[in-house]
Structures are given as C-alpha cells and as structure tokens.
Design brief:
5-stranded parallel sheet; Sigma_54_int; P-loop_NTPase; Helicase, Ruva Protein, domain 3; transcription regulation; Rossmann fold; two-component regulatory system; phosphoprotein; 16 helices
Length: about 375
C-alpha cells in the first residue's frame, strides 16, 4: 500500500485529486491537508511514499514545505502542483529537489504517470539502500579490541575528508576492508570504488591498466581503452600492494596526484580526473625508499594519513567474534545451520600462531565446519586445524 499525501488549499482541486488516485488503484491510500503547515505536521508524524503539494498556499507556501521536507525526510518524492502563473516557481522547485510538477487543472494521464514514476523511484531508492547495507556487510570490520576500535575511530574521522590514506599491515589482515569502509563512509560513496592489485599486474602492463591506452600504443592495443583512474573519476581508487608498482608507473601516479591529470599510454593529450587515492602495502616503504625501489615524494603524497592494521596475533581477543562471524557467513553461503564452537575450541584457536592472519583463520573455520562435529570441539581443532 502506497501512502500519498495531497497538500492543497483549494477543496475542489483536492477532491478531484483524491478521487482520481483512489479510483486509479486500490493500493493507493490517499491522505489530505488543507494548507502547508498542516501538511508538514502530517509528514513529521507519518510515513508517506509521495507528497503532492500546491505551490501557492496561505500560512506556508509549497516552496517552504519542500525545503522543510528535504531536511527532515529527503527520501520522500515531492510533486508540486502549479497554477498557470506559477510555472517559473515550479521550475525553481525542481532545483530545490522536487521530483516533478503538474499544472492545474491536472491532466489525468500526466498526473497518473507522474505518480507512478515517483513511487517507482521511491521503491528503487529503498531497494538500493537495502542492497547497499548488504554490500556493506561484506566489508564489515569485526572486532572490539583496542587496536580495531582505534582503526574504526580513525576511519570515522578521515572518511568524510579528501585526505589520501596509506594502509599498512601484513598480508591477510583486512586492509581492503579499511579501504572499503573509507569509501562507503565518504562523500564519494555514490561513485565507484575501483580496486587495482598492483602486485598482480605485470610491470609492462601496469601503466596501461592505470591510465589506459590509445589504439596502436603497443602490439595488442587494438582500440582505445580507458584506465582505472578514469573509471574511478569522482570516486575512489584503491591501489593495493602499491609497493610493487614500477618506478615508471609511480612517476605517473605522482603526477596524477599533484595535478589531477593523467595521460593514456601512447597519447599526448591530458585527461583531468577527480579521484581520491587510498593505497595499501605489506612492505616497509621507508626501506623500499632507502633501497631505491619506491619514490619518497610519492610516499609523502600517499601517506597523508597512515592506518596500520595489526596482525591477528596482536588482537587475539577478537578471535571469538571472528570465528562466530565466519561460522554464520559460511552457513549462509552453504545454506546450512550455524555450527557452534565450544569454549575450549575457541581457546585453542586463540593460542595458535596465525601467520596467515584473518584469511588463514577464515579457511580454518570453514575446514572445521565441513569436517567437525555438530558442535566444533577442542578435539576437532586438534585434528583438523593443525598447522
């Protein structure tokens, strides 16, 4: 059932709108208000899927209602009702965030199409929010240790800014989770997060991958191709294992950071990009700089904010939470019931030397769920989680 509110001071117009919508669909529940103040009060106290609002009204006009609603419930689509002399004002309401406007007297088809489209849009926005929450759960940071809480606090402070972030830590600690959290909590979350694993791309292809190429730039370049920086425009690019990037590519990344300009391989034309850079590495970049394998000027550009992700051995208190999280996730993926781990099994897992960090723990939990008993016991851990 879609709840629609009509705010209109002319009773005759209000009756027409209520009649049209009520007869159009039995899934429309139509409410009404005779002026802007009454309408705004109803919106504050009830949940509506759509508001039809007149522009010229006593006490509070439609523009004022629109601005107030956008502050308190911005997800509600507002369709403005304009008289003949209100057209310019109606157009202005679109700039203020109105979904659309319809003229008096309302054309039946135009009105119904606008209402359907507005409700479809509201549904789509709601579905996207649910989907985003599900996606976010894939990158949830599990843990309540001091080290993890400090990282969460740092993310909350840094994410809304444009500051570049360098994430350090051993392999398998979850550096990519930090990158995703930084993006999702940023003002750029509506734009793409483009991930590039610098260690997985051959050195001779890294520049083409990052910056794109033009046709004929090299043997296999059969057509123009945009790179990852262009794909991340207005969003975030995550340079994972940035310490493995060639010196040549480093020089081009440095220019992109300094000037917000890139150049495709084989081209002489600059392309402007607006990208936030988040980088990660498991290497000691200061040592790499001393040995001539990493540019010091690039390091200082990337490391405006440093976030160090601890090894699992340094946050053993989080292991019970992580085990339960992985057990629930694996059960969901496999369509089975969640297996519980005994207290002694958890204690034994906390004593292990986790050289592969969280990635290794996840693999061990999956192995125990497949091979262990109904409840994972200490003996199961000894049998199937041996190092």
């Amino acid at each position: 059932m879609s709840k629609i509110l009509i705010i209109e001071d002319e009773a005759s117009i209000r009756r027409v709108l209520v009649k049209i919508l009520s007869e159009e669909s039995d899934t429309y529940k139509v409410d009404e208000a005779e002026d802007g103040l009454q309408g705004l009060e109803k919106i504050k106290n009830e949940d509506y899927d759509l508001v039809l609002c007149d522009i010229k009204m006593p006490k509070m006009d439609g523009e004022e209602v629109l601005e107030a609603v956008k502050k308190i419930k911005p997800e509600i689509p507002m369709v403005m009702i304009s008289g003949h002399g209100d057209l310019e004002t109606a157009v202005n309401t679109m700039r203020l965030g109105a979904f659309d406007y319809i003229s008096k007297p309302p054309d039946l088809n135009r009105l119904l199409n606008t209402v359907r489209h507005a409700l479809d849009r509201k549904q789509l926005v709601a579905e996207n929010k649910i989907l985003k929450k599900k996606v976010s759960k894939n990158y949830e940071m599990i843990g309540e240790s001091d080290a993890i809480n400090q990282i969460k606090e740092m993310i909350d402070k840094v994410a809304p800014t444009e500051a570049r972030v360098l994430i350090t830590g051993p392999n398998g600690t979850g550096k990519e989770l930090v990158a995703h959290q930084l993006h999702e909590k940023s003002e750029r979350s509506g734009a793409p997060l483009i991930e590039v694993n610098c260690a997985a791309i051959p050195s001779e292809l890294i520049e083409s991958e990052l910056f794109g190429h033009v046709k004929g730039a090299f043997t296999s370049a059969v057509k123009d191709r945009a790179g990852k920086f262009e794909a991340a425009d207005k969003g975030t690019i995550f340079l994972d294992e940035v310490g493995d990037m060639s010196l040549s590519a480093q020089a081009k990344v440095l220019r992109a950071l300094q000037e917000n300009l890139i150049q495709r391989v084989g081209a002489d034309k600059d392309i402007k990009v607006n990208v936030r850079v988040v980088a990660a590495t498991n290497k000691d970049l200061k040592k790499e700089i001393a040995e001539g394998r990493f540019r010091e000027d690039l390091y200082h550009r990337l490391a405006v904010i440093l976030i160090k992700v601890p090894a699992l051995n340094d946050r053993r208190d989080d292991i019970p939470l992580l085990v339960n999280h992985f057990a629930e996730k694996i059960a969901s993926e496999q369509g089975t019931t969640v297996k519980k781990f005994s207290v002694d099994a958890i204690k034994l897992l906390q004593e292990y030397d986790w050289t592969g960090n969280i990635r290794e723990l996840r693999n061990v939990v999956e192995r125990l769920i497949i091979l262990g008993g109904t409840e994972i016991s200490e003996n199961d851990v000894k049998l199937f989680a041996s190092k």
